[in-house]
Amino acid sequence: MTATPRPDSRPVPPGLHFIATPIGTARDITLRALDILAGADALAAEDTRSLRHLMEIHGVPLGGRPLLAYHDHNGAQMRPRILQMLAEGRSVAYASEAGTPLVADPGYQLARAAIAAGHPVHAAPGPSAVLAALTVAGLPTDRFLFAGFPPPSGNARRTWLAELSDVPATLVMYESPKRIGRLLTDLAETAGEDREAAVCRELTKRFEEIRRGTLKDLAAAFADQPVKGEIVLVVDRPRPRAADPAAVGAALADALTRMGVKQAAAEVAERFGLPRRAVYQMALDMEGRE
Fold first, then answer.
1. Could you give the CA distance from residue 252 to residue 268 in angstroms, rounded to a whole number?
2. How far, in Å, are 20, 60, 152 from residue 159 at the CA level?
3. Which among 190, 172, 182 has a CA at the least distance from the CA of 220?
4. Which SUPFAM superfamilies does the entry link to (predicted)?
5. Average pLDDT over residues 189-214
């Protein structure tokens, strides 16, 4: 196996550097991320043990540099210390436990505080469970919404699912393996049994699994199946509802009183999700009958 190139240990520019770290396979880290880890004045991490292990795998020495734990439970106490380092003109690299910082991971408040204080904030992009799942799900990617983790139960969960069901975009969400079966059942009830979806489990890892199908079929498949590992659920956008011809005709007639044929057809086609050419022909027929 080809060895990983040695990271560049040249100094990293002052500022806060967010680093995406592998979600499974250690070799998914980017060369730029390794350079920053090797050259930053100080390091911060959601899990310092995970970052130490990743650096050991890739031959990046910590040396005498500070390695600070920064997570949701100690952020208020640690932010002033990190901001002081930035104020001194030092470079600080921050890594979440896995994936891209700020995407369902700590770092948001740190980024906000650094920006508010006028410090440079940079990103070293790389691994992302959201983008990996979209890549392999086989569902539309031109417009998507990352919804994060659903509420675990109760009215908050029902409201959350109802609000998402009509969003005109592919949905991406995280869920606990203990609750994925219930989530699929709830989505089948609120969003529609025939909606296509993909359950992406353990992405980039040895036991990676992608299960595709309708929400109904996936809910049945995962109803009594014990599941382990990290899960990303991708759900197709709502299918267009069949437009009522009478409603389309009335809307087009109204639009023609306010604008030309082409503009009226475009407005109505977008409103009802219909092909523009078909609505344009309807508009021409209406104009011809008058």
1. 6
2. 32, 47, 12
3. 182
4. Tetrapyrrole methylase
5. 96
Of 73, 69, 75, the residue nearest 110 (C-alpha):
75
Tokens coding 236: 């197709």
Residue 83 has pLDDT above 70, yes or no: yes
DSSP summary character for residue 175:
E
Higher per-residue confidence, 153 vs 206: 206
pTM: 0.80
| Inside any domain, residue 240 | no
Indicate whether 98 pLDDT > 90.
yes
Q: What three-state secondary structure class fits 173?
A: strand
Same domain (yes/no): 142, 190: yes
Q: Could you give the CA distance from residue 45 to residue 49 in angstroms, rounded to a whole number?
A: 9
Q: Which two tokens stand for residue 218?
A: 């996936």
Q: Can you tell me which residue has the tokens 């609750």? A: 179
When pLDDT is cut at 50, 70 and 90, the band that residue 269 belongs to is confident
Q: Is 279 exposed, middle or buried (0-12, 13-18, 19+ CB in 10 A)?
A: buried
Enter the tokens of residue 152: 């675990």
Domain end point (choices 80, 100, 127): 127
* DSSP 8-state assignment for residue 274: -
Last residue of a domain, one of 81, 100, 127: 127
CATH of the domain at 184: 3.30.950.10
| Residues 139 and 78 reside in one and the same domain | no
| 161 and 121 both lie in a single domain | no
268 and 210 together in one domain: no
Q: Report yes or no: 62 and 92 within 8 Å, Cβ to Cβ.
A: no
Establish if 135 belongs to a structural domain. Answer: yes
On whether the CB atoms of residues 50 and 97 are closer than 8 A, the answer is yes
Domain that holds residue 267: 245-289
* Residue 255 contacts residue 286 (beta carbons within 8 Å): no
**DSSP 8-state symbol, 238:** P
